[in-house]
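Sequence only, no structure available. Ideas?
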Amino acid sequence: MSAEMVFVEHCKGISGLDKVILREVRGSSAEVYLYGGQVISWKNDHGEELLFVSSKAPFKPPKAIRGGIPICFPQFGSHGHLEQHGFARNRFWSIDHDPPPFITNNSNKAFVDLILKHSEEDAKIWPHRYEFRLRVTLGPGGDLMLTSRIRNTNTDGKSFTFTFAYHNYFSVSDISEVRIEGLETLDYLDNLQDRQRFTEQGDAITFESEVDKIYVSTPTKIAILDHEKKRTFVLRKDGLPDAVVWNPWDKKAKLIPDLGDEEYKHMLCVEAAAVEKPITLKPGEEWKGRQELSAVPSSYCSGQLDPQKVLQGN
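Reply:
I predicted one. Tokens follow.
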């Protein structure tokens, strides 16, 4: 790599939408669209795509982009008069030229700060003033970090309440060959059964039908093992107690217009979230939620990798 490497590049993406490309010296990269403040691509140093984006995803506002890492705010799910998963994922964000200080490793050159503020239009459906700051960082080893800071800037003295999720779409070889470690024996709310509460069994989670669950009080680290690709995704999170696991499977996939009929086989959503207990901010208060994604080679299928060590390792 030349010393002239551009760590942060501003350019146009699909449909002429503004995007920022982050690059690291070893060759990993990430692409962030200002529309939705959404990471659309995350590649390792071999140029392999780690996130799933639907082949039918419309990059046409005001439709949300199916894939990558949509941000669900001010609500996860669909309740009341707000649109499904809130409005942050289909608004145009701005580059934040005056971010507050982040506690960060100064060796990271590949990052971008975005900001979303209330608009008069949004105030009609969600009558609050807020500032949502998002930093997306590509670490030296290719790790992808998203840090969100949401502040209540109401001047009328009113608190507001929200739920939140980083809606991660991971690219997997075959959903039937994937397992999740770290959520065993935990309680979850099943969205397929009116959010009834159940307790997960002691085994790692595998997939053979539609899944839409909100695991509560989850550990800060979750591992997603893709046997066929010999790859393990590790999701670390802070300030986000819940984890949503979703795959639509075959019947539901056919009903989703912006998803290919067979694409459910190559995607898995494991989301860092705060859903069960909504967050309330008084005027002037700020909430922070962070996730870090890494992809590590694994040879679990040959029995050489103990997934528990992945979870316990640093």
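The radius of gyration is 19 Å.
Hope that gets you unstuck.
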